[in-house]
C-alpha cells in the first residue's frame, strides 16, 4: 500500500527544516502513473515531486529513499542555485545529512531469482559527459578521464551474475532516464 500524500509532504517539510532551507513555497508531492522506469522526478522551479506509484508499490521500502532523493534536488536548487550539478557534492551532502547513502542514486530492478540474500552490491558509474562506464563495488566521485566533474550517474544492482549482466547491458539512454531530473523545468 502506498503512503498518503500528506505524509510524504510532511516528510519533505521535515527534511527542509533539517537541511535549513529558507521558508518558501511548499513542495508538493504527486503520484504520476504515466512514469515508466523512472521512480521519481523533481521539478525544481515549481517545487514539485512526482513519484511512480506502480514501481513503488512493488518496492514500498524504496519510497522514502526516492522521496528524499528528489526532495534533496529541490533543496539543493533552493540552497545553492540553479547551476548546482544534479548529483554533485551539494546534493550528496544533503543526502548524507538525511542519513542516506549519497552514492546510491537508483536501484536497478532485476529478477527476484537473481537477487543475493546478502546485501552485497555493485555499482555502475557512467559519466554523463563522455559515456565512460565503470563497474565496481564502490563508487568514486573523482574527476572523469574526460575532465568532467560532478556528472556521474550511478546505478546499483545486487552483486550477482544477474546484477552484473543488468549493469553491463543497460543502455545509456535508460541510465539517463532512470536518473532523470527534469532539467527542462529548471
Ligand atoms: Zn567523462
Ligand atoms: Zn537524482
Give a description of the structure.
By secondary structure, this protein is of the alpha/beta class. It has a single domain (5-185), classed as Zincin-like. It is 34% helix and 17% strand. It has helices at 5-18, 53-58, 63-80, 89-97, 161-169, 172-178; strands at residues 28-31, 40-43, 48-51, 106-107, 121-127, 133-136, 152-158. The protein has a four-stranded mixed β-sheet, covered by helices on one side. Strand 5 and strand 6 (133-136) form a beta hairpin. Helix 1 (5-18) packs across helix 3 and helix 3 crosses helix 4. The longest helix has 18 residues, at 63-80.
Strand order in space, largest sheet: 4-7-5-6
Query: What about the largest sheet?
Result: 4 strands, mixed
CATH C-level category? Alpha Beta
Task: Tell the overall outline.
Answer: globular
Integer average pLDDT: 84
| CATH 4th-level superfamily | Metalloproteases ("zincins"), catalytic domain
Rg, Å, rounded: 16 Å
Number of domains: 1
Q: Summarize this, please?
A:
The chain is α/β, with parallel strands linked by helices. The protein is 34% helix and 17% strand. It has one domain: Zincin-like (2-Layer Sandwich), CATH 3.30.2010.10.
Layout of helices and strands:
Elements: H1 5-18, E1 28-31, E2 40-43, E3 48-51, H2 53-58, H3 63-80, H4 89-97, E4 106-107, E5 121-127, E6 133-136, E7 152-158, H5 161-169, H6 172-178
Parallel strand pairs: 1-3, 4-7
Antiparallel strand pairs: 2-3, 5-6, 5-7
Spell out the key features of this protein.
186 residues; alpha/beta; Zincin-like; four-stranded mixed β-sheet; three-stranded mixed β-sheet; disordered C terminus; binds zinc ion
Amino acid at each position: 500500500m502506498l503512503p498518503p500524500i500528506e505524509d510524504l509532504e510532511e516528510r519533505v517539510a521535515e527534511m527542509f527544516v533539517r537541511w535549513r532551507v529558507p521558508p518558501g513555497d511548499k513542495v508538493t508531492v504527486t503520484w504520476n502513473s504515466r512514469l515508466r522506469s523512472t521512480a521519481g522526478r523533481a521539478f525544481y522551479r515549481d517545487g514539485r515531486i512526482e513519484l511512480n506509484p506502480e514501481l513503488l508499490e512493488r518496492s514500498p521500502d524504496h519510497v522514502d529513499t526516492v522521496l528524499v532523493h528528489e526532495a534533496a534536488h529541490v533543496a539543493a536548487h533552493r540552497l545553492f542555485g540553479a547551476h548546482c550539478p544534479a548529483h554533485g557534492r551539494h546534493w550528496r551532502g544533503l543526502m548524507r545529512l538525511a542519513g542516506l547513502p549519497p552514492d546510491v542514486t537508483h536501484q536497478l530492478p532485476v529478477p527476484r531469482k537473481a537477487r543475493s540474500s546478502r546485501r552485497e552490491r555493485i555499482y555502475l558509474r557512467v559519466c554523463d559527459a563522455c559515456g565512460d562506464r565503470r563497474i565496481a563495488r564502490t563508487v568514486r566521485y573523482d574527476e572523469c578521464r574526460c575532465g568532467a566533474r560532478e556528472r556521474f550517474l550511478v546505478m546499483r544492482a545486487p552483486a550477482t551474475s544477474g546484477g552484473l549482466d543488468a549493469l553491463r547491458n543497460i543502455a545509456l539512454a535508460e541510465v539517463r532516464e532512470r536518473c532523470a531530473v527534469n532539467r527542462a523545468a529548471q
